[in-house]
Amino acid sequence: MWRAISQDAEKQRERNLTGKSGGLNHSEGQQSLQCLPGMGFAGERCNRLNHGNHELVELIRSKIRTDGPVSFAWFMDQALYHPEHGYYSSGRAKLGRRGDYFTNVSVGPMFGQLLAFQILEIWERLGRPTTFQIVEQGAHEGQLARDILRALATISPACFDNVRYHIVEPFAVLQKAQANRLSEFGACIEWSSSLETIERFVGIHFSNELMDSMPVHLVRRANIGGDRCWVEKLVSWQDGHFKFVEAPPSDERVAEQLGTLRDVPGDAELEINLSALDWITTLSPKLERGYAIAIDYGYVIADLSSLRHPAGTLQCRTQHRLIESPFDSIGDCDITAHINWSAIAHRAEKAGLRIDGFTDQHHFLTGIIAKYPEAVQADDASARRQLQTLLHPEMMGRSFQVLSLSRGTEAGERLSGFQFARAPLRQLDLRPTA
Ligand SMILES: C[S@@+](CC[C@H](N)C(=O)[O-])C[C@H]1O[C@@H](n2cnc3c(N)ncnc32)[C@H](O)[C@@H]1O
Q: E-strand spans in 239-333?
């Protein structure tokens, strides 16, 4: 989605989240934030807040009543992925103009068409394997898979004939939507419910906006008795409302990540995405030979000292409106946070992957078009509009970044998407490892 905080949106956020402007120029984005009137769970009157899905609210409340405050990561996991009531797992999440937010995919088929050229190049680099796996994770309702496969069938029937398209999808409702949308491709599509259960593969793993949807811990740089320290924001229930309370970090792995951050100004808030680190650790051994390409929005460690987002990057959104609190519309709205690209790349390297490239979406797509100019038909007005949205620095071009990781590939030659990128380790603020 275009949830990455654009500079305009950022200014507005500072002005108390009065809504997002710019971006795709859709009128929904211009609406100002309204308090949602409503009742809390079990008929309890809430003055301003609509807590959201009643069963989910009750379930979270009951856990807090039994165990005490919970981490925000646990709360977010329930809100988005509780097997029955979560925003994504229930099938309530709708993307695009009539949904809650935009992604690269909802702009139109152009994004998938350009990715298809990058995938074709990878197939050729890998020596045209006769079983070429494309593994997609976070495929939602299968739009991107369809755009890529249709484009591949046109631009290279030889590659298309060797593709096994493997979707990692934990949720039955989304798997069903994908199967409907991809029925034209028959047996070339297969599914797994988790990354853990897939076989080692030769090919490419890719994801668009997967990691920003993973549960995060929330932390704040506090000044306690003159000492700078990190505290974690936990979710509690008091006086009929969910509230944040602060405590020392709840998980030693959170503390370990905090130890890698430097020069963070006082009072800053941040999100720690342990799930993304676990995800890359699980993915690495699955990739026998090929590439993992992740497209998402985030920051690198060097950005933390200047801190463009002192209040953190957590955003909740429904119907193209920012919601002020994650405790509004629980299970009915999206929750997302920027990712720490440096931490993810560092973990990937530790897990045995090579960092091949890191750049913004503008340079990535421009690199593909420079190598494959036939990807863009000059006389197609719709394609030109889509391309402008994807490339323009004030729209999606700079908000999104692309990381390429690989194993068992030639180190020298860059993929076309990274031909205009700077040296990745410097970009990611990582030192070359010995
Ligand atoms: C922000 S949406 C992006 C959807 C789509 N890739 C797009 O760009 O339009 C995130 C998607 O990732 C999925 N997701 C989150 N964690 C996942 C996981 N561990 N495995 C597979 N999908 C996951 C969610 O269910 C959701 O469909």
A: 241-247, 269-272, 287-296, 298-299, 315-318, 321-323
The residues lining ligand 1, judged by C-beta closer than 6 Å to any ligand atom, are 1, 88, 95, 103-105, 137-138, 140, 144, 168-170, 208-210, 213
What is the signed CA dihedral for 402, 406, 412, 416, rounded to 10 degrees? Answer: -40
Q: Which fold, 105-213+278-297+338-427?
A: Rossmann fold (3.40.50)
What crossing angle do the helices spanning 381-391 and 361-371 adopt, rounded to 10°?
Answer: 140
- What is the average per-residue pLDDT within 179-186? 97
Q: Which residues have C-beta within 8 Å of that of residue 172, sequence separation ≥ 6?
A: none
Res. 48: pLDDT tops 50: no
Pocket test for ligand 1, best of 81, 148, 213, 335 (most atoms within 8 A of CB): 213
- Residue 333 CA to ligand 1 centre (angstroms): 14
What are the extents of the domains in the chain? 105-213+278-297+338-427
Can you give the pLDDT at residue 38? 24
Instruction: Provide the pLDDT for residue 250.
Output: 87
Tokens at 235, concatenated: 């979710």
pLDDT at 3: 53
- Counting from 1 in the atom list of ligand 1, the atom nearest the Cα of 194 is 20
